Amino acid sequence: MKPLVVFFTREGSTRILAQAAAEKLQCATRELVDTKERKSMPSAAFSALLRWKAKLQNPDFSTEGFDLLVLMTPIWASNLPPAMNTFLAKASLQGKNVVLVGVGAGNANPNALEKFQGVAKKKGANVVAALDCLGIQLMKETASEQEDALKERGTKLGETILEKAGTEK
Ligand SMILES: Cc1cc2nc3c(=O)[nH]c(=O)nc-3n(C[C@H](O)[C@H](O)[C@H](O)COP(=O)(O)O)c2cc1C
User: Fold this and answer.
1) Which domains does the chain show, CATH number per domain?
2) Whose CA is nearest to atom 17 of ligand 1?
3) Which of 10, 18, 134, 158 has the most other CB atoms within 10 Å of its CB?
């Protein structure tokens, strides 16, 4: 199995989760970097609600050679941030096994995961699993304060992905 973990982050928690999961999966990560910082919460939420796309820095949408894509993104207002919308729009996902991970301040974002799956399936992806993962509470804590807990959660996430993807093959 040759996986790739593709992720977006605004505050850093998804990066820590993604790197720990990738370590477990023994694979590379690719960060989607939005050219806009989207530091204002309301405008970030608005961009997600309207399903905007982003211009990415040094975009790489290639997926050839990977047989499992793990797409990890924070959930914004029960939707996906523009950077992940762009990746989903531009990357070739036809026939690809994908695991989708929604990172939230809450334990579960079922509506967001349903939308995430809907878009991936429309692109022809085979959704192996759609998973919730706890990130950080933005007003209360930072990603670096929660680094140890996030690493541990990312490692567990990697184990879950291995189990789910292992049975697909
Ligand atoms: C604009 C905005 C909207 C958010 N909406 C949700 C939400 O609908 N559900 C949720 O669980 N968390 C929500 N969050 C919290 C983030 O998803 C959470 O803090 C996550 O860990 C941030 O990931 P990051 O550190 O990789 O940027 C929102 C955060 C922002 C900035």
Assistant:
1) 3-168 (3.40.50.360)
2) 104
3) 18
pLDDT in tens, 57-96: 999 999 999 999 999 999 999 999 999 999 999 999 999 9
Name 146's Cβ contacts closer than 8 Å, sequence gap at least 6: 13, 16, 136
Contacts of 105 (CB under 8 A, 6+ apart): 134, 135, 136, 137, 138
Burial class (CB in 10 A: 0-12, 13-18, 19+), 90: middle
At position 9, the amino acid (one-letter code) is T
- Taking the centre of ligand 1 as the mean of its atom positions, its distance from the CA of residue 97, in whole angstroms, is 25
From the CA of 22, how far away is ligand 1's center (Å)?
21
| Ligand 1 atom nearest 42 alpha carbon | 1
